[in-house]
Amino acid sequence: MLINWFRFASPVSFYPIAGRWSFAFGALAAVLAGAGLVVGLWIAPTDATQGDAYRIIFIHVPTAWMAMFIYLVMAAWSALALGFNTRLSAMMAQALAPTGALMAGLALWTGAFWGRPTWGTYWAWDARMTSTLILLFLYLGVIALRSAIEEPRRADRACAVLALVGAVNVPIIYFSVQWWNTLHQGSSISLTAAPKMAMTMLAGILIMTAAAWCYTIAIVLSRVQAIIVERERGAGWLESLIEWRAGSEH
């Protein structure tokens, strides 16, 4: 049986699905985050070089990964919005920006606290730190640009262009440790080589990464519902849904 995926590109079809998935992924995120913190804070061994200070990687690494990944997803939705003029694609890109900014901010903040005992400084203008800071500014720029343009469709196009132009920064972040001499070490986790850390450490990072994924999906779907309500105000299907919900609560 073939599924007509195109019907999910309509806000009226996507709205109820987003509500169901948001709750499910939110619950899963809470469970995974709890398990990941237990592994990272209590089960994983103390690092021979960094001591217990290294444990901040269980927050730092997943948020840094998600900051880059979310930007690429935002850029992909922006490309769809520009190429096919689909409202839901622009709404998804809009919903992703605040969460991407949160992840980039957390990556920088936790990285600073990791850097102090490891490198002797909270901040150094090395390639990876600077390019990640630029990533945060790109997220904030997309958010600010949308707020500055009142007409939603014009805002969609302007933000989409900015998101696509800024996507070039993501590979710069990823390859910065290979292209330049930075304080950051090379990747300890690779798809083509054995991990350079204890398996319990790796397990904690992967569980926390899965938690960050689920949280992102949950919060973005919840946010896109709010955006749909705001931008589709006055639409017949939305008015009917609001009336139905009001009736079911009494």
Protein architecture, described:
The chain contains 8 helices and no strands. The protein is an all-alpha fold and 250 residues long. It is globular. The protein starts with 10 loop residues before the first helix and ends with a helix. Residues 1-5 have low confidence and may be disordered.
- The assigned structural class equals mainly alpha
How much helical structure, as a percent, in the residues?
A: over 70%
Overall outline: globular
Q: What's the alpha carbon Rg, rounded to whole Å?
A: 20 Å
What tags apply to this protein structure?
single chain, 250 residues, mainly alpha, 8 helices, 75% helix
Offer a quick outline of the entry:
With about 250 residues, the protein is mostly helical.
Layout of helices and strands, plus pairs?
Blueprint: H1 11-43, H2 57-84, H3 87-119, H4 127-148, H5 152-166, H6 169-179, H7 199-231, H8 236-248
